[in-house]
Amino acid sequence: MPIIRISLRAGTPPAERTTLVEGVYAALRETFAVAEGDLFAFVHEHEAANFHDGPDDLGIHRSDDPVAIQITANATRTTAQKRALYAAIACNLGRGPGVKPANVLVNLVEVVPENWSFGDGPMLDGPADP
Question: What would be the CATH architecture of the domain defined by 3-115?
Fold first, then answer.
């Protein structure tokens, strides 16, 4: 179950925030084979004074309405799957709430399975105790 964190400017309507989560989740299901119902997402809104970004980083021109997405997932996906994920997120968000692809920043944080507990305290999957 990946954890999705979406950061955006304050004042985004609730329906648009929901559409952002749905677009990222659909991309994860399509490219990372995330199971239906495996959804854990946080949406963070930031006032302009608390959201700083370079409008022309790496030759990509962004408007003043960026969407930063951080996904924490198991370190089990191929480079091709990651490329497909990034492209699917940009496509989905362009279709859904109409986010310009240049405004979509994605950061994937990969962890090993023993770094997860999804409730009640047990480790998800890890090495046996010595």
Answer: 2-Layer Sandwich (3.30)
